[in-house]
């Protein structure tokens, strides 16, 4: 009993930090508490004598639980709003307790949580753990099932999304769609000058290994080169939600075969990532947009 009580005390010493991690990942107070409780259940069943760094072990467990919870969310909303965010804004269900309110106030605002809710699960986990809690990439990599370099790319991509997003994600998405649809129309029609007008002078196109194997260039830099690459092409691509942002997708027999993931800032395309790796495409959950 004494060992159990000591373990409980050590867990309680980490609870606030674990709740903060879970809240940033899930955007829901109740789900964050569920994730932390699950971490306690797993700890109580584990051999704690084999755990050298309890705080790190618990953070890893909470992150994995949160990743599973994020992946289990089956519906994507046209207007992103994480479950439980209304509690933060409207004070439903009696509001947050003082400890939890302090956690929420610590660098997490409503706009940030809404933006985080647009990120694919693995990106969100990598970004939160690294950028908000300084967890090294080599420790995050096993959680998201990627290499350390791939995990670094996940966090970098999430960072660009967060930095480029406005406080009004619905309006931001509408502006993204305008730019992407204009890009697609200009590319299909071979209108080189119209493409140039949509591209940042330092725009870069990067392709993953699978896309390179399919014939794409690994990297293309500069507005002229990128416009030349796409002019008269992309005829089969269609606008889609890609990881919560607007991009393009090419499908074959009803399956997404390549995703064009756009990064847009100030109305200009600053980066396009061509993704053909099936696992990454599944992670991004591309959804064709209607007219």
Structural commentary:
This protein folds into two domains: about 1-165, Butyryl-CoA Dehydrogenase, subunit A, domain 3, CATH 1.20.140; about 170-290, Nuclear Transport Factor 2, Chain: A (Roll), CATH 3.10.450.50. Helix content is about 60%, strand content about 15%. It has helices at about 1-25, 30-45, 55-70, 85-90, 100-105, 110-115, 120-135, 135-145, 150-165, 170-190, 190-200, 210-215, 225-230, 280-285; strands at about 200-205, 220, 240, 245-250, 255-265, 270-275, 285-290. Strand 4 (about 245-250) and strand 5 form a beta hairpin. The longest helix has 25 residues, at about 1-25. Mean pLDDT is about 80; it is low at about 75-110.
Features:
291 residues, alpha+beta, Nuclear Transport Factor 2, Chain: A, 14 helices, 7 strands, elongated
**CATH architectural category of the largest domain:** Up-down Bundle
Q: Percent of residues in beta strands?
A: 15-25%
> Roughly what percent helix?
55-70%
Q: How many strand segments? A: 7
Topology as H/E string?
A: HHHHHHHHHHHEHEHEEEEHE
**Spatial shape:** elongated
List the helices and strands and how they pair.
Elements: H1 2-26, H2 29-45, H3 54-72, H4 85-90, H5 98-105, H6 110-116, H7 121-133, H8 137-144, H9 148-164, H10 169-189, H11 192-198, E1 199-207, H12 209-213, E2 219-221, H13 223-230, E3 238-242, E4 245-252, E5 255-265, E6 268-275, H14 278-284, E7 287-288
Parallel strand pairs: 1-6
Antiparallel strand pairs: 1-2, 3-4, 3-7, 4-5, 5-6
